[in-house]
Amino acid sequence: KESIAVYNENRQACRDFCDMAAEYPGNIKPSDRHAVLKARWFMEKSKHTALIKELMDALKAEPKAEFYGKRVVVSGIMLEPDEVLDIFENNGFAIVADDLAQETRNFRQDVGDDDDALLALAKAWNDFDGCSLATDADKPKGRMLIDAVKKYHADAVIVCMMKFCDPEEFDYPILLQEFEAAG
Predict the structure, then answer these.
(1) How much of the chain is helix, strand and coil, in % rounded to 5?
(2) Distance CA 100, CA 121 (A)
């Protein structure tokens, strides 16, 4: 239960950072955003949380740099190597939100504070929506991405398809229809 609380605090800090990065697209390069979120995989969570909070405080003290490029939402399993993220930056794209398995899918929802910690983890997985790897007949992922485009005033969704990732490939035709219908 104590670990869940530490992880939930980190999840919230990551969500706050992502929202802030969307507000500062001229200050935070796609590769920098990615590095902050990827560090979560390799650091003790309370230390990562403290560093993210320190980074956000420093960012608040900076003026917002002008940004004239395209604001995009990315979706997929991951967006690597860093050279791919450099292509985004070199072409004037800012990642204002993501639905990457390697990034926000890991922290977009908290784990409940049930008396039974294992049951809380199981419930969190059961309640997890919008992932091609998690069976969900309602397929809410498209709607979630369209909502993110609206929330973050994005210009487009970029689907980052992993080669031979059947679950993502099977969902793509559904996503494409929903994106086209939403304009």
Answers:
(1) 55, 10, 35
(2) 20
3-state secondary structure of 8: helix
Residue 132 burial by Cβ neighbours in a 10 Å radius (0-12, 13-18, 19+):
buried
Using one digit for the tens of pLDDT, what is the confidence trace for 3-36? 999 999 999 999 999 999 999 999 999 999 999 9
User: What would the pLDDT profile of 112-125 be if each residue is shown by its tens digit?
Assistant: 999 999 999 999 99
Which residues does 39 contact at the CB level (< 8 Å), separation at least 6? 48, 51
Phi, psi of 71 (to 5 degrees): -100, 125
Tell me the C-alpha distance between 5 and 21, whole Å: 24
The band of 132, judged by pLDDT with boundaries at 50, 70 and 90, is confident
| H or E element at residue 93 | strand 93-100
73 CB-near residues (< 8 Å, 6+ apart): 95, 96, 97, 98, 99, 145, 148, 149, 152, 154, 156, 157, 158
Distance CA 9, CA 6 (A): 5
